[in-house]
Amino acid sequence: MFARVVECGGFLSASKKFGIPKSTLSRRISNLEKRLNVRLIQRSTRNLMVTDIGKEYYQYCLQMISTAEKAECLIINKSEKPTGKIKLTCSNILLDLGLTEVLAKFMLQYPKVNLHVKIFNRNVDIISEGYDLSLKLIADEPKNSNLVMRRICAVPTAFMVAPSATIQYQSINTPEDLSSLPTVGWLSTHLQAAWTFQQADREVKINNESRMVCDDIRLIKESIVKGVGVGCLPLKLARQELLDGSLKTLLDDWTLEQHKIVAFYPSRQGLPPSVRALIDFIVDELAE
């Protein structure tokens, strides 16, 4: 009440603006001054003057009010049922890594939310293109990004071969040995696939001109299974083939560069409850 009286420049103005009786304001601030044992306001019939200590106290009051308002917004955002439209973009590999089922479950749990999903295998400027959220599979975190990034989960991968193929993979003991084998890999501008292997303190990067490159992980997987070449696949995507023996991992003593699923969005402030709920839901469903 003290802050509102100072803000309005008097008891009468504050009374009219906030609907609190003038007598109540005067009595409550007098009680405040007695409790603090200081004079915050010098009163007269025409003027109201804030004392020096009152001015300092007022600044703290503003901080208290601001913090209280933020706390209320937090509760409202947490308790509100998410509604409205979310514009989401993601790469197609995420659909094969479980995102399809996750989005369907989210829609069932939040019936008042509408999802507009666009699949891109390119960098998307979500601010200029009008998207609320972008989900990606990345290895290296972007530098100098003006977006907020939240890590969702790691995606373990391994180099794989079809044992039934005619590929002579038995002599592959180091990443450098891959140069003797046909490979399939993710599409890049130079029609090359690049993999980074680590073992203890040693790191080896392999650039291989693959027999086939594409931006669809299903085609890469099918090509490896059919024996077109060896290549890297997420373990989750090849779980059944590894169990039934149609695929086998290579270079098990080496660790491939860690990939992870991340969410990008413009800002933490003002994030709609629906978008926040979707991000939290995806994290809960896909996290390790």
UniProtKB/TrEMBL annotation:
<dbReference type="Pfam" id="PF03466">
    <property type="entry name" value="LysR_substrate"/>
</dbReference>
<comment type="similarity">
    <text>Belongs to the LysR transcriptional regulatory family.</text>
</comment>
<keyword id="KW-0805">Transcription regulation</keyword>
<dbReference type="InterPro" id="IPR000847">
    <property type="entry name" value="LysR_HTH_N"/>
</dbReference>
<dbReference type="InterPro" id="IPR005119">
    <property type="entry name" value="LysR_subst-bd"/>
</dbReference>
<dbReference type="Pfam" id="PF00126">
    <property type="entry name" value="HTH_1"/>
</dbReference>
<feature type="domain" description="HTH lysR-type">
    <location>
        <begin position="1"/>
        <end position="51"/>
    </location>
</feature>
<dbReference type="InterPro" id="IPR036388">
    <property type="entry name" value="WH-like_DNA-bd_sf"/>
</dbReference>
<keyword id="KW-0238">DNA-binding</keyword>
<dbReference type="InterPro" id="IPR058163">
    <property type="entry name" value="LysR-type_TF_proteobact-type"/>
</dbReference>
<dbReference type="InterPro" id="IPR036390">
    <property type="entry name" value="WH_DNA-bd_sf"/>
</dbReference>
<keyword id="KW-0804">Transcription</keyword>
<protein>
    <submittedName>
        <fullName>LysR substrate-binding domain-containing protein</fullName>
    </submittedName>
</protein>
